[in-house]
Amino acid sequence: xxxxxxxxxxxxxxxxxxxxxxxxxxxxxxxxxxxxxxxxxxxxxxxxxxxxxxxxxxxxxxxxxxxxxxxxxxxxxxxxxxxxxxxxxxxxxxxxxxxxxxxxxxxxxxxxxxxxxxxxxxxxxxxxxxxxxxxxxxxxxxxxxxxxxxxxxxxxxxxxxxxxxxxxxxxxxxxxxxxxxxxxxxxxxxxxxxxxxxxxxxxxxxxxxxxxxxxxxxxxxxxxxxxxxxxxxxxxxxxxxxxxxxxxxxxxxxxxxxxxxxxxxxxxxxxxxxxxxxxxxxxxxxxxxxxxxxxxxxxxxxxxxxxxxxxxxxxxxxxxxxxxxxxxxxxxxxxxxxxxxxxxxxxxxxxxxxxxxxxxxxxxxxxxxxxxxxxxxxx
Length: 379
Hints:
Radius of gyration: 21 Å
Distance between the termini: 12 Å
Number of helices: 16
Strand content: under 5%
Oligomer: single chain
Mean pLDDT: 90
Structural class: mainly alpha
């Protein structure tokens, strides 16, 4: 229930913020609450709410507290004292440790970074989609995962934010942000998938575009079949750390969640239906075609989680931006065409997202964030 309350308050705050965007005082007031509430919920949680708090978050924090100054921090990083933990996450820990020694501080700060990037992406896209829908879909589909996959969630939220530079074709910023995302998490290298798909659909020659899109879609499952070789080579060449050997291919049904797969397919079908419904709008046809292709590739990657955790994590770099940005954009296009159809599709999408959240998070305890425990809040 505490998650539901925070989700509703955050969504309401975001809605009011968008309605008052021209009134700076009101906009900033409600924006602060929209970002702060879920970050505070993450900060107040006990260790163990989210498995990775026990696996690395607490341990990294304890090591950071033993670092006396900046020079010691740099030396410790260069000497691999933190093993394979990425630089930006370590830097965040060090900065937070300068003002607090409480482990809850890093719980709060790491999630605050995630919420800031997601909210900023929602703000940047406010003319293309409703900010509140972006936030609510993130909360229902990925917030609980951010309490567990802490480092990767930072990289993913940065990817959602940085996608605007791909659309604006500001290539220097794309390269810079791609590097920063990689510094946040090793899997951030797959931010390049967003760029490749965009470039394919940017092509004017429809024959070449179709050929490349088919080739890319075929390469995805083929690369998953060669997963072991790719990982072994990447580790042996020093591209990836040794820990990724644990992702070597094996039958792994625990990471393939049927309910998630079904919802992903339904989201894809919704976009395909919207393409047919808006087929007389040529610009929108191309836009919707790209969104549908994103989800199709995301589904293929998610299917790869039957073979390895690697594909499961990789699929997030496609599914995250689709669910948090592209899907709300499609809903907005439908709203502009037919308000009654918009209301029906909006209710259906939110119902599916809520059912998925309840089934995976509450009932099956996905990401191990249920029950929510907090000594600070007395829960």
